[in-house]
């Protein structure tokens, strides 16, 4: 017997967790002597009040959709992929190699190739921890953390010693050619008569991210493989009994997860920076954890949570620009969301289950 | 490389291994009791900030140390609440704690000191000074033993000695006391401990609290002894290197010291020499940075003996089903 109706599990619990996180964040803002209401107003007007704000919100949201989906797919197989950051870094390396060393005639072909390279590099980076988990029994959380640091060192080496143009002091690759420039939302929307901000970095990758949400949804809920992944996540012994290979599912789920995290690079490396810089991921791999937890590992939930975090990111940047509240406020909010929707889930769930049980008894 | 250079590198090895060692022993207590802790980094960072902040305001490094330990204990309590009382996912809780510390330290630092997320530089009584061993000055000129005694052993801050004394203490507590036996049992088979009438929850909270105290000392060491004040993200992944050392040591105290000294040596070498030239083959500094993590993955992969974590690690204990 289910203790709660499904809508409570899907909507009510995340909502209450979110409200708890919001209340605590407001207290934090009060604690550092600022006005939470004014802060929220400034965040809303800064992130959603102009097409410029929307452009940044959607740009960040695109990153978080990819990394959130990456964490969510692994969650379905009960694997905690904390290595989205490293996989996204490697994806960036793949994109940069493809864009720098191949003369592409048109951005659309370059985008396809970059997607392939980003997914390949991200998947490779996830494959080693996946293999070690599946065959050697080493804990995937620890190995993926280690691979984040190894990726950072590798990228540092590549940028400083290999890809840095001669004579440049900056640890960054050369700028990509003009032909691989991805159209921004401004360039996409002008032909249909919408004047979107020219300065904002949101670009065609947003459409790829939305497409990825749909594809992941279909994969998880409409294919045999998705069924096997979910079955494995619910019960390893049950899946084994049904003839599902744990090795295969661990590998496949992590490869898909790594590919999705790597795919983020088409947005931040190809779409925005148009060259590979140090720390281009800016922690988006970790925000994917919060996004997946809040979105309940469902692609539509991830989509909504990614936009919420995009809003928080852009709003937080506005706050840091105009008030005395540093950008790290977003990190605190992110931590609270992870805490309440992830680790303290039972704190919200247990009392709610009691309430629903009491209500049901009252009716019967 | 002459003898004095080697001594200097080893000296900085000891300094750099100290925070790793304290955090590693902290993780050892927690994980031996069955509570995975990837929030070592966050607890150290929180303690680093509060110890530096209180030391800067009061001018007393000892008050700073206490404040650091208290701050770290608060986060440890949060981890306990999430993973013991509410049986949440210990890994997710650890991730949340790391972000909480990364954000809150800068937020509070900016509010209190308005220096862009750092504390003022600590001077005089705000820092742990070096402790000179007796006769260190007069023995300095003595060949071989002189530099070892007066450079390598003498002249560290008190927390360095605390860290290295904590190794036999940890061994003794875990392997020679009743509390230690129960603590290890709770990490292997909590149901058995429960059947014996000992509180699983109590033991696990105790382990998490010890972890908090040790992480607090580690953070205070970073901000008030190794450096003079707090800067944003100053732990720089040390909590994760400590975690790596813990796996490398296969959850044993003396091996933990060995692993931390090894990783400290790697850091010291990377700090002193940028790119190392080994007769034509140049090892870039990034290889030294990545080596602790690569070594840990190799250990985890089981190529050099198998690292088996405590059996009940990561799983909340449910008394009744």
TrEMBL record, chain A:
Membrane topology according to the record: Multi-pass membrane protein
Membrane recorded as keyword: yes
Record's keyword terms, sorted: Cell membrane, Membrane, Transmembrane, Transmembrane helix
Matches recorded under InterPro entries: ABC_transp_permease
GO cellular-component term (any): plasma membrane
GO molecular function (one): transmembrane transporter activity
Subcellular location: Cell membrane
Protein name: Nucleoside ABC transporter membrane protein
Species of the source: Ruegeria marina
Taxonomic lineage of the native organism: Bacteria, Pseudomonadati, Pseudomonadota, Alphaproteobacteria, Rhodobacterales
From TrEMBL, chain B:
Localization terms from the record: Cell membrane
Membrane topology qualifier: Multi-pass membrane protein
Residues spanning the membrane: 12-29, 49-78, 90-109, 158-175, 205-224, 256-275, 281-304
Keywords assigned: Cell membrane, Membrane, Transmembrane, Transmembrane helix
MF terms in GO: transmembrane transporter activity
Highest taxon of source: Bacteria
Example of a GO cellular component annotation carried by this entry: plasma membrane
Pfam families in UniProt: BPD_transp_2
Alphabetical list of CDD domains matching this protein: TM_PBP1_transp_TpRbsC_like
Database matches in PANTHER family: GUANOSINE ABC TRANSPORTER PERMEASE PROTEIN NUPQ, SUGAR ABC TRANSPORTER INTEGRAL MEMBRANE PROTEIN-RELATED
UniProt protein name: Nucleoside ABC transporter membrane protein
Source taxonomy: Bacteria, Pseudomonadati, Pseudomonadota, Alphaproteobacteria, Rhodobacterales
């Amino acid at each position: 017997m289910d203790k709660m109706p499904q809508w409570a599990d899907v909507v009510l619990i995340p909502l209450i967790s979110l409200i708890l996180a919001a209340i605590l964040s407001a207290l934090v803002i009060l604690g550092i002597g600022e006005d939470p209401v004014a802060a929220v107003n400034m965040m809303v007007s800064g992130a959603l009040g102009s097409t410029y704000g929307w452009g940044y919100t959607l740009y960040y949201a695109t990153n978080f959709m990819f990394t959130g989906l990456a964490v969510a797919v692994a969650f379905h197989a009960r694997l905690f992929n904390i290595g989205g950051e490293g996989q996204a870094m490697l994806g960036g390396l793949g994109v940069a190699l493809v864009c720098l060393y191949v003369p592409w005639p048109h951005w659309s072909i370059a985008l396809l190739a970059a997607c392939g390279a980003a997914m390949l590099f991200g998947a490779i980076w996830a494959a080693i921890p996946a293999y070690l988990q599946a065959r050697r029994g080493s804990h995937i959380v620890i190995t993926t953390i280690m691979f984040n640091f190894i990726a950072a060192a590798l990228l540092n080496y590549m940028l400083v010693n290999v890809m840095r143009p001669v004579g440049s002091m900056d640890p960054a690759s050369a700028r990509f050619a003009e032909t691989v420039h991805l159209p921004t939302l401004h360039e996409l929307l002008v032909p249909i008569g919408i004047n979107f901000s020219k300065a904002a970095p949101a670009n065609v990758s947003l459409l790829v991210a939305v497409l990825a949400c749909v594809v992941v949804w279909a994969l998880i809920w409409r294919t045999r493989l998705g069924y096997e992944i979910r079955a494995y996540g619910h019960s390893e012994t049950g899946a084994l009994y049904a003839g599902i290979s744990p090795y295969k599912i661990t590998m496949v789920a992590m490869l898909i997860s790594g590919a999705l995290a790597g795919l983020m690079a088409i947005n931040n490396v190809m779409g925005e920076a148009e060259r590979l810089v140090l720390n281009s991921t800016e922690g988006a791999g970790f925000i994917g954890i919060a996004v997946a937890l809040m979105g309940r590992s469902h692609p539509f939930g991830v989509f909504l949570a990614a936009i919420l975090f995009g809003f928080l990111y852009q709003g937080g940047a506005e706050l840091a620009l105009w008030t005395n509240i540093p950008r790290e406020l977003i990190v605190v909010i992110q931590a609270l969301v992870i805490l309440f929707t992830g680790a303290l889930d039972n704190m919200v769930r247990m009392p709610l289950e009691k309430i629903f049980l009491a209500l049901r008894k009252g009716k019967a | 490389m002459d003898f004095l250079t080697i001594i200097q590198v080893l000296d900085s090895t000891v300094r750099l291994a100290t925070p790793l060692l304290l955090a590693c022993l902290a993780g050892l207590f927690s994980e031996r009791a069955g509570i995975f802790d990837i929030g070592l980094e966050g607890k150290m960072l929180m303690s680093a900030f509060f110890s530096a902040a209180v030391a800067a305001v009061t001018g007393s490094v000892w008050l700073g140390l206490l404040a650091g330990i208290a701050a770290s204990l608060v986060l440890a309590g949060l981890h306990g609440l999430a993973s013991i009382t509410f049986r949440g996912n210990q890994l997710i809780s650890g991730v949340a704690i790391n972000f909480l510390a990364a954000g809150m330290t800068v937020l509070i630092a900016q509010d209190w000191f308005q220096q862009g997320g750092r504390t003022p530089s600590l001077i005089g009584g705000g820092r742990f000074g070096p402790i000179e061993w007796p006769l260190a000055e007069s023995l300095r000129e003595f060949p071989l033993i002189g530099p070892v005694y007066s450079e390598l052993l003498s002249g560290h801050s008190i927390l360095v000695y605390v860290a290295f004394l904590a190794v036999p203490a940890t061994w003794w507590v875990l392997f020679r006391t009743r509390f230690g036996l129960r603590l290890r049992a709770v990490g292997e088979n909590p149901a058995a401990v429960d059947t014996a009438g000992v509180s699983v929850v109590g033991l696990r909270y105790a382990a998490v609290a010890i972890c908090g105290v040790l992480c607090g000392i580690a953070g205070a060491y970073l901000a008030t002894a190794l450096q003079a004040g707090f800067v944003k993200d100053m732990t720089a992944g040390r909590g994760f290197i400590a975690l790596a050392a813990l796996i490398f040591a296969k959850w044993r105290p003396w091996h933990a010291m060995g692993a931390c000294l090894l990783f400290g040596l790697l850091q010291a070498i990377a700090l002193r020499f940028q790119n190392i030239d080994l007769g034509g083959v140049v090892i870039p500094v990034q290889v030294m940075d990545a080596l602790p993590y690569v070594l840990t993955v190799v250990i985890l992969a089981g190529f050099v003996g198998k690292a088996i974590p405590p059996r009940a690690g990561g799983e909340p204990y449910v008394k009744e089903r």
